[in-house]
Structure formats: C-alpha cells, structure tokens
Amino acid sequence: MVKVSGGQATVKVLEAEKTKYVFGLIGSATMEIFDALYDSKSINYIGVHDERTGVHIADGYARASGNAGVFLAGQNGPGATNLVTGISQAKAAFSPIVSIAGSLSSEHIYRDAFQEVDQEALFKPITKKTWTAPSSERVPELLKEAFRTALTPRMGPVHLNLPRDVLSGQFDYNDELKPLEYRNHSAPLGDLEKIQAAAKLLKNSKKPVIIAGGGIKNAQGQNHTIPLAELLNCPIVTSPGHGDAIPFAHPLNAGQMGPRGNPVASKLVKEADVILALGTRLGFNSTFYSYENINAHASIIHIEIEPTAIGRFFPVSIGIWGDASAISGQLLQALNKLNHLSKVDQWTAQFKDNRKHFLQHRDENAIMTTPIQPSGLFKVLRKVLPENSSITMDAGTLCLQATDALNYFEPRSLFTPLDFGLVGFSFACGLGVKLAQPERKVISLMGDGGFGMTLSELSTAVDQGINTTTIVMNNKCWGAEKAYQRDFFNERYIGADISSPPFDQIAELYGASGVKVDSLPDLSEALSVALELDKPSVIDVSVDPSALYSFRKDSFKHRSN
C-alpha cells in the first residue's frame, strides 16, 4: 500500500491497462497527471496542437489497434469544449476512446468560476457514459469503468472529468486488480434455434448475398465470414466505409454497396432473395432507409451485437442478437450439417462476370489527362500503393468517390468519418493509424478545405516521427456544396470557393516533405518517393475544380424539376 495523488493513481490505472500512448494537450488543470506521466516507463505521451484533431489521432489509433485510444485534455473549460467534435465523431464510428479532462475544483462549481462549464452535461449526449470523480479514492474505480465501458460492444467513447482537488488529493492506493478481472471475457453467441432457422433459409436461397459491416471488420471476422460465403458460393458486399472487411482479392468480394457504393454490389442487394446482414445496422449510408437500395421482397437475416439495431429500419425474417463474427462460425457449422444446398452457380457466376467488367471498365475509362480528374488520380493510387497500405479519408465529394475506387487487401485498412461525415478528419486519423500499424504505409486523402483545418498537427507528425503520406486533392472549393449549388441552385455560388496557401511549401516549413503535383505522371513519381521517405510527406495535387459530383441527390429531389 502506497500513498498517491489522484493524478498518480490515474497513471497507475493507465499502466495497468497497458496503455501504450496517451494523446493530449497540456494544461494547468491536470498537472498532477502530467507529472506522473513523466515518471512512467511504459506510456508514451504524444502532445498535440488542438484537442479536436488530437481526439482524431486517438480515434485512428483505437480503430486500427482494437485498443482504447486515450486522450487527455489538460485544461477544463475550453480544453474540454474543444473535444466535442472529435468525441462526436468517435461516437458515430463506435470507436473506443477514453477521454479525460481536467475540471475546476469542487469548491468552485456553480460559482461562475474561471473556465467553468458543465462538462457532464456537455459530454453526456456524445458518449456512452460520462462521469465526474467525486474524490481521489474513486479515481481508479471510475477510470477502470471507463475502459470497460468503452471496450464493451458496441464500443464507443467515454469521458471522465477529474477536478483539480481530486487530482491533488492523497490516498492509500492498494488496487492490484488486472484488466482481465473486470472485463468481458467473451462475445455472445447466437440462439441455436434461430441459427438452425437461418441456415435453412440460406440453404434454400437462390440469390443469397452477405452484407459484411463494421461488426465483421472490427472483430477481424473475415476468417468466419469468408468460409461461410464459400460454402454457400455466395457474393459478399460490404457496408460503406468498411470496404476492408473482406480482402479485395477474394473472388466473392463485390465491394461496397448502397447509394454511395459501386453498381455491382448495389445491384446484388437490390436483387437478392435472402440477405444475411452481419454486423451492420443497414443504416443511412448503406440504404438511405429506402427500399430503392435494398430488395423489399428479400428475407433478411439480421445479426447484430446491438439488439435495438435488429429490424430497426427494415423488417427481418430472422433476427439474431450476438457477435456477428462468432455467429458466422455457428452458421457455417449448421450449414455443414445440411444436405443439398441450393445451386446458386448462375447467380454467382453472373456477379463475377459483372465484377470483372466493372473493374476493367474502372481502369480502361479512367481519364489520364490534365487537368487531373478523380478517376485518373485513383488509378494511379491503385497502381502505386502497396497492398498492405492503410488509407484514411475525409468526408466530401472527392473522398466519397475514392472510397470504393481504391482496393483494400487487409482488414482494418480503411478509416473514414462514417456517419458523422466530418471534414478535417483524415490527416490526424492517419497519424493514429500509423502509431497502431507502424509496419504499414499510411496514406491520408483529403480536400484542400479539410487539410487547411488540420495543418497544425504537421508539427506533431514531425516532432514524433509519424511518417504518413497525405494527398491533398486540391480543387479550390468545398466540392460537395459547390456541386449542389451547380446542380440544384442554378449555379448561384456563395461560400463554395476557397483559397489556400501552397501546402507543399507549408509542409517544408514544418520540417516535412512537400511536393506540388499538376499531372498524373508527376503524381506517380512523387507518391513512389514519398512512401519511402523517413519523414511525413504532403503531396498537393491540383484536381480539376469542375470534377464535382452530387452524392446527396435524395436531399434535393424537391428541386429536380
């Protein structure tokens, strides 16, 4: 038993959780934690330049590693409020972030004190759970609960406020509990009766399709899902943003489906007679909640770790609560015991032929001229990027076009804002991904507007030696909005055009590598060089400003006439 402060206890729990990185921005409210981190032999502190982008770094680390991403906002008030966008992004992505913020002394609350804001009220709507530690002695308990909550499926961010007096207070620390003693040990399996019913439904299907979502990707569940698809000879589509759930090269992989997916995968879901939805909500990005994007007459077998997601948007024939990856294995066992599976050779052969022609068309019809067009840019990326690359993206029209235009050969290699649709996410996220996957090349795609939001983290990348390659697709505008103004508002442009400094020169001033590219041959050469550099790199690519696409046409149907 030793006497410690609340700040020292915080670091002891972080060490017990085998926390490798703490991302943060220093502030006076949490000096007790920073002083304890100074003595830690196992935790690497990564100081960032903005709390929002710092949380994106922690988010990328969490998603790529499967461990909790820890962020420490050193200051209460503005230090905490700056977290909101990053935490909201993590909640939409079900990313396990443990967010810690300083808080004003307990005796000062409700007195309009310096930098006072109701941090519990602020974070409750955007986290799985938010706490404020009432005493130093409770810090270990609440921090362990924070890790347990963040990492329990469906995972997500949590937030803990630590008042100044709680951090400075002393108490006798004798907590020797290990994480496995207060964590979940296994994921829930599916009900056997429903497994049998689902197997029979799949057995008799003439046009089955599997939708693999985040529940498969995040659990590395392809090892169960692929044998299941192979037994059924059934195509697999992936939900948007999870195109890496199934390796690109697998012959049954159709790519991402839905209104933002590719036409082959989307057609499968519109024509299938049985849809096996694994670890996906069948939510907005996948379906726009519309039978225009999913067969209204299909029998849906919906398997999800979150019971309230089952059948929420579309009626299901069979709903099974549990871990989608594990239940894939159960279904495989059940189907192996059945005889005379339906012959779906024609269905799958037609899909393979469609997929082959789609991929050929994608390459043959890429525009390789100047000014640079998105299709040509993506073709260069497909050719140059190593197969084990990890790719991060922003929201916006160019990144949305890129999502299913690139190839993902290994799970956990595609990281997007998902349903939060955030611009300014990709570069910072990539830094966290690189720390989690140091053996991979990490490439971050974003527009000029989004990169302009996050320039300050170039210092973090250079100072910490986090060597990612950022491709700025520079079209001098907010592309999605300008496309809508062009297509639905009679080209009445306002606020859509933007100016930026030369990002290549800015990168050089920060100590990174910077290159300006105006042609595709130059891009190929610059990217090949950047991937081998021992420093962060930024490639500022001039993209045709008129190469815009309206993705959310559904939002403007009332203006289409």
How does this structure look, described?
The protein is α/β, with parallel strands linked by helices. The protein has 3 domains: 2-181, Rossmann fold (3-Layer(aba) Sandwich); 192-353, TPP-binding domain (Rossmann fold, 3-Layer(aba) Sandwich), CATH 3.40.50.1220; 366-556, Thiamin diphosphate (ThDP)-binding fold, Pyr/PP domains (Rossmann fold, 3-Layer(aba) Sandwich), CATH 3.40.50.970. The chain has 23 helices and 20 strands. The strands form 4 sheets. The protein has a 6-stranded parallel β-sheet with strand order 3-2-4-5-7-6. Strand 2, helix 2 (31-38) and strand 3 form a beta-alpha-beta unit. It is globular. The termini are far apart. The mean pLDDT is 95.
